[in-house]
Amino acid sequence: MNLLLLPLQILSGIYLTAAVILILFIFLFSMMRRYKRCPSDKILVVYGKTGGGKSAKCIHGGAAFIWPIIQDHAFLDLTPMSIEVNLTNALSKQNIRVNVPSRFTIGISTEPSVMQNAAERLLGLNLDAVTELAQEIIFGQLRLVVASMDIEEINSDRDQFLSHITHSVEAELKKVGLKLINVNITDIHDESGYIQALGKEAAAKAINDAKISVSQKDRDGAIGEAQAVQDQRIQVAAANAHAV
């Protein structure tokens, strides 16, 4: 009897050892799968019980271990988004309606505080939803900037106009975790033709200034030529008198 039970005990021990090894292997494999690396073009968002009083932990260009049951993770894509914003009938400071067709390039920010905003407000949204949200923010801020400036300022000083747009739009985009990468204003025009009239006035002034400049150069040239002839005649007369 004892001799018969011995092989069974050995087999049971082998099975038990194999089961323990298998369980350990599965456990280690599961733990390895919970270690997540973050690509350079994404943000790793760890949510759940993260500690520090934050609703989520954001990691860019690193890695983190995701604890089972109490934590989970998701990724935010850093791919830039190009948004066409065709603002029409926006009232300027002079109550003149203008159209400002433009294109904005935006993306999710990698600044620590702004990444936290993105994790709280953009996580789970697809690209179309993020684009629509950013477009609404840009439309509103662009109208405010146009309303704070005169037509002459918008038309003549494009650098200042772009600076106001950048400052205003970027501050609002940061609240939802986005950043402004580039702004391109293609053209500005109004239905009343005021900007076109300003352009014609500037062109006419430039033409007149050019004509005046040419006339002044011609006058200076004629005076210089007459002065040279006069000097020549005086010098010739003096030489003749000296010879006599």
Explain what the structure shows:
With 244 residues, the chain is of the alpha+beta class. Among the domains are: 81-192, Tetrahydropterin Synthase, Chain A, CATH 3.30.479; 194-244. It has 6 helices and 9 strands, in the order H-E-E-E-E-E-E-E-H-H-H-H-E-E-H. The strands form 3 sheets. Strands 6, 7, 8 and 9 form a 4-stranded antiparallel β-sheet that branches. Strands 3-2-5 form a 3-stranded antiparallel β-sheet, with helices on one face. The protein is elongated and about 150 Å long.
Which range best describes the helical content: under 10%, 10-25%, 25-40%, 40-55%, 55-70% or over 70%? 55-70%
What is the helix/strand order? HEEEEEEEHHHHEEH
- First and last CA, distance: 162 Å
The whole-number mean of residue pLDDT values reads 79
Keywords:
244 residues; Tetrahydropterin Synthase, Chain A; 3-stranded antiparallel β-sheet; 4-stranded antiparallel β-sheet; alpha+beta
Strand and helix map with partners:
Blueprint: H1 2-33, E1 35-37, E2 42-48, E3 56-59, E4 63-65, E5 71-77, E6 81-91, E7 97-108, H2 112-121, H3 127-147, H4 151-156, H5 158-174, E8 178-185, E9 189-190, H6 194-243
Antiparallel strand pairs: 1-4, 2-3, 2-5, 6-7, 7-8, 7-9
Can you summarize this structure?
With 244 residues, the protein is an alpha+beta fold. It contains six helices and nine strands, in the order αβββββββααααββα.
